[in-house]
TrEMBL record:
It catalyses: 2 5-aminolevulinate = porphobilinogen + 2 H2O + H(+). Homooctamer. Its EC number is 4.2.1.24. This is Delta-aminolevulinic acid dehydratase. It comes from the Bacteria. The lineage of its organism: Bacteria, Thermotogati, Deinococcota, Deinococci, Deinococcales. The gene is hemB. Keywords: Heme biosynthesis, Lyase, Porphyrin biosynthesis. The keyword Lyase applies. It comes from Deinococcus taklimakanensis.
Length: 335
């Protein structure tokens, strides 16, 4: 009989051994729970995201309570206003939907961390992340793009309004050049130097955002976002450049979005920078697992936990995920 010196299976023999020696750990404290908030009083299920709904302000407060009870300490808010216009004015209105939801959550669940998504796409009538301008000499999808520098002023106004409402973290997601610097300057000038900026530093023009656009009503009516979001075929150099610029402008954390198809990029950022790195497990990634599970093709619980673990293993310090509450429940059951 062959005598083997090295037998890795010895350390996989029991659940206790496997748990004791795991290199990668998942905890509800690492999850950020996204909440869609609309102006209405009802809850509206989102067809393309089974299990996720648009909530009233009161419903958002209840979601916040559930998150904290399950050990999930943070939420990120996405607003869906009744009125949209070319400049997205409801994004920076002091009585805007995110501002009202933030005040309500902080009043009822004060220890919860509220992160405000700072963008204009949910608030503009054309679905882009800022006011539009024509691109000379271009046609088709590239004929219209976001006017970068005027958008910076609106983002700074939005961030200050969100901070004034009680947001603990500002999370700009527009991929405008200079967005972190403009927001940092605006917050500092308004007396919010203590509020951190969680930058969507590396955000791709991805097909995985489809269900989110359904949820937020932010599908572009003209053009596309490829002129400002990153090319999925771009390499690590572009990702590092984008992240480095945000670090230089004062970002407190960096984000990679989407996460699952860009784990290599997440690992590169983790190795290069000493700031916390956040992974966004986006709507399309969520919907794929939900659809497969509902069809009986995959075990939802095992697939979700494996997916989230892969993001932690790649270097994510925190994960924005629509699975947050379910994953927190499952971790509690396994404890």
């Amino acid at each position: 009989m062959t005598t083997l010196k090295d037998r890795p299976r010895r350390l996989r023999r029991t659940p206790a051994l496997r748990a004791m020696l795991r290199e990668t750990q998942l905890s509800p404290a690492q999850f950020i729970h996204p909440i869609f908030v609309h102006e209405r009083d009802d809850e509206q299920p989102i067809q393309s995201m089974p299990g996720v709904s648009r909530h009233s302000v009161a419903g958002a407060v209840e979601q916040a309570r559930q998150a904290l009870a399950l050990g999930v300490p943070s939420v990120i808010l996405f607003g869906i206003p009744d009125h949209k216009d070319p400049l997205g004015t409801q994004a920076y209105a002091d009585e805007g939907i995110i501002q009202r939801a933030t005040r309500a959550i902080k009043a009822e669940v004060p220890t919860l961390t509220v992160i405000a998504d700072t963008c204009l796409c949910e608030y503009t009538d054309h679905g882009h992340c800022g006011p539009l301008c024509e691109v000379p000499g271009q046609s088709g999808g590239d004929a219209w793009t976001v006017d970068n520098d005027p958008t910076l002023e609106l983002l700074a106004r939005t961030a200050v309004s969100q901070a004034r409402a009680g947001a603990d973290v500002i999370a700009p997601s527009t991929m405008m050049d200079g967005m972190v610097g403009a927001i940092r300057a605006g917050l500092d000038e308004a007396g919010f130097a203590h509020i951190p900026v969680m930058s969507y530093a590396v955000k791709y023009a991805s097909a995985y955002y489809g269900p989110f656009r359904d949820a937020a009503g932010s599908t572009p009516s003209v053009g596309n976002r490829a002129t400002y979001q990153m090319d999925p075929a771009g390499g690590h150099r572009e990702a590092l450049r984008e992240a480095r610029l945000d670090v230089e402008q004062g970002a407190d954390t960096l984000m990679v979005k989407p996460a699952l198809a860009y784990l290599d990029v997440l690992k590169v950022l983790r190795d290069e920078f000493d700031l916390p790195v956040v992974a966004y497990n986006v709507s399309g990634e969520y919907a794929l697992i939900k659809a497969a599970a509902l069809a009986g093709f995959m075990d939802e619980r095992r697939t979700v936990m494996e997916t989230l673990t892969s993001m932690r293993r790649a270097g994510a310090d925190a994960i924005i995920t629509y699975h947050a509450l379910d994953a927190a429940r499952w971790l509690r059951e396994d404890a």
